[in-house]
User: Fold this.
Amino acid sequence: MGASLYNDAFVRSYTLMPFFWLRAALVLYGAGLVYSLLSLARKSERLARVVMPLIWLGATLHLVSLVESAWQAGELVPASPHQAESLLGFLVMAIFLAFWIKYKTLSPGIFVFPLVFLLTLAASAGAQPPEFTSPMLRKGWIVAHVTLIFLGYAALFLSFVASLLYLLQERSLKSKRLRSTRLRMPALEVIDEMGYRSLLLGFPLMTLGLIAGTWMAEAQFGAVFFRDPKIVLSLLMWAVYTLLLVTRWNAGWRGRKAAFLSTFAFLAAIGAWMANYFSLTHRFLGP
Assistant:
């Protein structure tokens, strides 16, 4: 009897470990949220010195949570909305960290930190029963589809953040208030480059992800797959994404025009993401 209770307690604590690491990451991400709020009040200089080590540690614990969760579930694909939110939050933070290594600027964090905090908060609310239960989820093409699409979402968000920073910096320069603000942002050319690199990173990932998902779903569901609202909005998002790159390559759109179009592309991405909660094919319900 005692051994059975001990085993039950051990199993329960083992299954809760991913939430422990995730909630620990949430606490550390809270430093980024505070930094974002203080940046709006122009009082973030002291916290800026310590926020990045905390963010790095939070991202590491977040990764540990994702790995343990996948190990326990036996699947690499998120099996519930909370797991999807956790994965998306981690990938957004991972791409931000990659850009921080390149540019050494915290300014995108003003928008990145609150989003990642909210996604992690939602994911750490508690365990959800699996909603995506089909054996299809164990196939390599679906794993590739989900990973590439989520990376594309994360890169597109960074492009949107760069567009916001560009508009804020441009407005500050035009109003000649640059010296009065304590929010340090890179030059306009650097911000524009960050947005462009985000697009170049996200577009092939999004394209390959859509190809992988379409190939598998068409074989599984047939033509009805293309009438799903998630698919329609995803194709619209990809079309806007393509238009954004074409205008930069051929029409030379940069700066303000590119920032506004990037914002529109991000709004299309939000619509495509929200369609997950209304899509039938993307739940992959099955035996």
About this structure: The chain has two domains: 1-130, 132-287.
